[in-house]
C-alpha cells in the first residue's frame, strides 16, 4: 500500500497524481528509498520505470503504486569493457529482475561474484546514495543483491 505522504519535493506532500510519471520522479522516489511504479487504472498494467502512458492500452489514467523489493533474475550479462564512468567496477553484472508484482526492472547486481550469478535466483532491491562527485550520473541509485 502506498503511504499517504512523501518528502518528494523536500517537504511533506500528499501522494497524488500531481507527481508526473517520469524517470526523474522515479529517481526522486529512489532517493527516498522507495521503489514506485505507475499502475494503469484501465488495464492494471504495472509500468516500471514509470512513463506517462500505459504501453499496453495507451491510457493516461495512471496512479502511483509501491513496488515490492524482491524478485527473480530473468537474464543478465557481465560487462568487461565498460563506459569510462564504470571502469573502476568492471567487470560487473547487469540484469533484469521480475519483481513479485510482475514488473521487470533492470539494474546492476552487487554483493556476489559474477560467476555465482544464476538465472532464476532471488534478488532484492537495495538503495544507495549517488557518490559526491561532479561526474555523471548524479541520481540516487539502486542495485540488486542476493
The rough form would be described as: globular
Low-confidence stretches: 1-5, 9-13
What percent of residues adopt helix (DSSP H or I)? under 10%
Mean pLDDT: 87
**Could you say how many structural domains there are in total?**
2
- Number of helices, where a helix is a run of at least 4 consecutive DSSP H or I residues: 1
Strand order of the largest sheet: 8-7-6-9-10
Distance between the termini: 24 Å
Largest sheet report:
5 strands, antiparallel
Overall strand count: 10
Q: Please trace the helix and strand order, writing H or E for each element.
A: EEHEEEEEEEE
Rg, Cα atoms, Å: 16 Å
The percentage of residues in β strands lies in 35-45%
SS class: mainly beta
Task: Give the tags.
146 residues, 10 strands, 3-stranded antiparallel β-sheet, mainly beta, disordered N terminus, 5-stranded antiparallel β-sheet, 1 helix
Write up this protein.
The protein has 146 residues and is mainly beta. It is 6% helix and 36% strand. It folds into two domains: 5-66, no CATH class; 70-145. It has one helix and ten strands, in the order E-E-H-E-E-E-E-E-E-E-E. The strands form three sheets. Strands 8-7-6-9-10 form a five-stranded antiparallel β-sheet. The protein has a three-stranded antiparallel β-sheet with strand order 4-3-5. It has a two-stranded antiparallel ribbon with strand order 1-2. It is globular and about 40 Å long. The chain starts with a strand and ends with a strand.
